[in-house]
Amino acid sequence: MTSAKMTVAELEKYLHDVFPQVFRGGDISIERADGTSCLLRQRYSEQMLRPGGTVSGPTLMALADFAMYVVLLSAIGPVGLAVTTNLNINFLRKGAPGQDLLAQARLLKLGKRLAVGEVNLLSGTSPEPIAHVTSTYSIPNA
After folding, report:
1. How far apart (Å, rounded) are the C-alpha atoms in residues 92 and 89?
2. Distance CA 48, CA 42 (A)
3. Average of per-residue pLDDT values in the chain
4. H or E element: which one contains 42?
5. Distance in angstroms (rounded) separating the CA atoms of residues 136 and 129
6. 80, 101, 111, 116: most buried by Cβ count inside 10 Å?
7. Band of the pLDDT at 2, cuts 50, 70, 90?
8. By C-alpha distance, which of 84, 64, 65, 70 is closest to 13?
9. What span, in angstroms and rounded, lies between the C-alpha atoms of 101 and 133?
10. Is residue 25 scored above 90 in pLDDT?
């Protein structure tokens, strides 16, 4: 599809500058980004949990949306005004308390104005996704 326009270090620096609230808690890290896919980790905290002791939907949606933003920027470079136009999430199983969350995102189609991708959200070391997300981003004119 494309080669990376930004390295992990460049992404982190750029995002710390333009989107610092995502990193405020120090709990999200970009482990890999290559222009077509990325892997993010969100370290476990009790703030992730909803009543009943499962990882909350808003936590999962936010991580998935951020993962799509990261993979898109790795593909197109520092375009801060790329925005989500659609996000669909299917909750598949309970996210276990005490486990980090992993977001595996990949671009399915990268056009001039729209990018479509998917994210698998995982809990800890389990290979079974706890949620599956599809998302579309709008890319502004250059």
Report:
1. 9
2. 10
3. 94
4. strand 37-42
5. 20
6. 101
7. low
8. 70
9. 14
10. no
Instruction: Using the structure block, give the residue that is written with the tokens 């990949």.
Output: 106
**How distant, in Å, are the alpha carbons of 47, 59, 64 from that of 95?**
13, 11, 14
115-142 burial string, b = 16+ CB within 10 Å, else e? bbbbbbbbbeeeeebbbebbbbbebeee
* Torsion (CA) 14, 73, 128, 94 in degrees, nearest 10: 60
Give percent of the chain with pLDDT exceeding 70: 98
Average pLDDT over residues 118-127: 95
The mean pLDDT value for 15-19 works out to 92
Any idea what the Cα angle at residue 63 is, between residues 49 and 72, rounded to 5°? 175
Is pTM beyond 0.70 here?
yes
C-alpha closest to that of 87 among 55, 53, 121: 121
* Backbone CA torsion sign across 77, 80, 85, 91: positive
114, amino acid identity: L
d(CA 40, CA 31): 6
